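FAQ
Q: What does a multi-component entry look like?
A: The components come first, one per line:
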Amino acid sequence: MAFASIILLLVFSGAISLFELERVSHDTEEILRASKESTDLAHEMVNALNEQNDAIIEMAVIGGNLVDITPHYNRCVESIERLNVATERAQQRMVEIDSPTLTDSLIYYTAKINDLANSYINGDVHRTIAQDTLMLSTPHSWYVEYYKPEYVNVSRQITKFMTGSESTLGPDVNRLSHTARRAVTPVFISLVVMVVVVLMLHYFLGYYLIKPIIKINNSLGDYLRYRSPFDKEISCRDDIKSLRDRIALLIAKLK
Amino acid sequence: MRVPIVLRYIGMVMQFVAAFMLASAGVSMLNGYDSAYYPLLLSSFITALLGAFPLFFVEKDGEIKTKEGYAIVVGSWLVACIVGMFPYLIWGGEFTLINAWFESVSGFTTTGASILNDIEFLPRGLLFWRSSSAWIGGIGVVMFALVILPSMGKSRHMLSNVEMSTIAKDNFHYRSKVIFRILITIYLGLTITTTLALKYSGMTWFDAINHAMSSCSTCGFSTKNSSVAFWDSPLIEGIIMAAMTLSAIHFGVLYATFTGKHNNIFRSEVVRTFIIMMVVISLVIAVNLVTSGLYSTFGEAMRHASFQVVSLSTTTGFATADTNTWTPLAIVLLIFCSVICGCAGSSSGGMKVDRLLIASKVIRNRMKIQLHPNAIIRTKVDGMVQEENTQNLVMTFIVSYIMLTIIGTVIYAMFGCDLITSFTASVACLSNVGPGFGEIGSMSNFADLPVVLKLNSTLLMLIGRLEIFGFIQLLFIRSWK
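Then the predicted structure of the entire assembly, as tokens:
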């Protein structure tokens, strides 16, 4: 019974450890996947933003020297679209992990910079500049005064999104550490319990088997050497009790 | 002393503990196999396995001796606390080895002190186990096992002598078998009634069961971080107050009341003193809180004052307000409640009203004898003459309680706690109340205490739960053979 229970205990605790390890593996994968997703999104947003910024710089700052601005125009349109898509995906992801407010500022500033970029490629900026009779405004000054501050704001928001989304993984990481402990503790406790079981077994075997046999042996030895009476009251049970009684009977018959 | 016999009874207790762990695993299963399912299942298996060995090897024995009775009670409590920490330890989280031990001892001794910063983070299975340990502790692990296990014959009474305080034993006129039936009937009845009442006053089934178990065992474990204050409901507070008060009254007296017998709660001097004490202290605190401007209306002050007074007097430890912010007079009176606590023969801990009553009468009689040296004055409680031996025991208990409180306070202070935290932690643990004041106030916990102090707290809890003398017997273990 003792050995069967020890084996059962080991199998049980081993199975739990394996199950928890499976969970650790699953949780780690989840965390890594979530982290990669956030990093990819931030990477995509940064790329799109830089692409848009480059195109705007080419058109607004050094645009006068360009022969053909069409490629930059196309790049700008494409980057606006990419930034919109990436921001929407970021918002969707934050909704999925119950932190929808984390992307509020990002969406606001992205919409603002995209509006600015759109107003440039639509020609609204040029029309405004043309209406300026004092000729104080230029595309370059528009870039410095309006576009660049928004570019900085969006960059900041992307960084914020990056750190924010990583911090939302905190509880998952915490859970992972718990699961990892749950994978180890059962085996450790089972080992301690096994030691206790073995000690109990040792105690009970000693108390009910070994001690009575030693007492019977000593009492029989005393009888054989000194003819002192055999102790019929030795506390024992089952087969050992039967042995004691038979020895007592044998001694009685020999008399 | 026959060690195998002691081990056999401890083994029985372990089977019961294992059954409750299995029930908690069932709760986990019902909650979509939450993260406590496997820890509870494995703990249940380990506990049942360890308890099965003595049952397998040792045969039944009709009679047990006094020393064996002591060993069974103390051993069962210690073993229950050890196996009770397995679910916490395996589950992990905030439960390090010492924290798991603390939470387990706190549950089984019905103290209700916690090391958890975020209770609501715990899975439901583990929360249920936490309340279960308190519930088992409330009735007494050993007594609980004895009621259900039918094969113990004469040995029942021997254990009841140890389990219940001497006074509780004196108050019982029923045969031991009847005593156990009474206890389990009252305890189960109270728990079921409280569960239903809490459910129909707005709690979920889960919260209602947990709070009923916690109230009836006078433990004070809650499923919410803000304890009973979470519901902010006078009705729920009223129900819990009633459950706590009834659980702190001698179960024999409660049984007599429900069965229409003569010696009921309306005639009991001890119960009368207990109720009057709580009412007067609540009124004084309420007036004090209103005059000091902490509460705008008397009704609101009385609501919070009475809940806190009942909670501490019954050694439960639930909270609806942060008592750390209350006035010095209110704090002193609440500490007094934590020292005196409920009646003997109940699930509450502490010094007990019975002892306070006997001690005050002994002092009064001593003064009378000073005036009339030849007078023969008897000390009576509830119409019964208290023998000199009982009086001596009461006085010895009170002195031992004070000495242990002082020693406990010194140990807390040695490790950097302030005076109010040290003293109230010592009282709260020794009386099995749970919350104290200062760093361990009603809205905080024992999490930040150093390991040594957590161990000191658990030792005080065990000493208090075993009515001091039950534990002190362990010191004379050499004379047991």
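Q: Is there any commentary attached?
A: Sometimes. For this entry: Residues 10-168 of chain A form a domain with the Four Helix Bundle (Hemerythrin (Met), subunit A) fold (CATH 1.20.120).
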